[in-house]
């Protein structure tokens, strides 16, 4: 979303044209899209397992 502080400031009369057609609908991607990425989920699973192992160690071994 473009706010009033991000107005077009180029000196050209029209924006540059590209050869690729613009998509009719651009999908908004948020937090759930970021969580669906496999590298991030693997990283979070490893961190979660390390925290779980540390908690189990503290509870039952120490």
Would you summarize the structure shown here?
With 62 residues, the chain is mostly helical. The chain is built from 2 helices and no strands.
Report on the structure:
With 62 residues, this protein is an all-alpha fold. It contains two helices and no strands. It is elongated.
Keywords:
single chain, 62 residues, 2 helices, 47% helix
Q: Topology of this protein?
A:
Blueprint: H1 31-35, H2 38-61
Low-confidence stretches: none
Largest sheet: none
Percent of residues in helices comes to 40-55%
Give the integer mean of the pLDDT values. Answer: 77
Tell me the structural class.
mainly alpha
- In total, the number of strands is 0
Instruction: Give the terminus-to-terminus CA distance.
Output: 53 Å
SS element count, helices: 2
